Amino acid sequence: MADKQDPDGIVLTEAQKRSRRNRSIAIALALGVLVVLFFAVTMVKGPAVLNRPL
């Protein structure tokens, strides 16, 4: 069990870091658009959303 491993772990290239950042931004924007869409639909439906039988 005397394996020598690099203490830094996996080191990404600049292109991989850029790609990861762009992907994260795209996911965040998609999630934000989805939240705004759900909010807008709820506002359009109005208070009738809350007046339903359980």
TrEMBL record:
<protein>
    <submittedName>
        <fullName>CoxF protein</fullName>
    </submittedName>
</protein>
<keyword id="KW-0472">Membrane</keyword>
<keyword id="KW-0812">Transmembrane</keyword>
<feature type="transmembrane region" description="Helical">
    <location>
        <begin position="25"/>
        <end position="44"/>
    </location>
</feature>
<keyword id="KW-1133">Transmembrane helix</keyword>
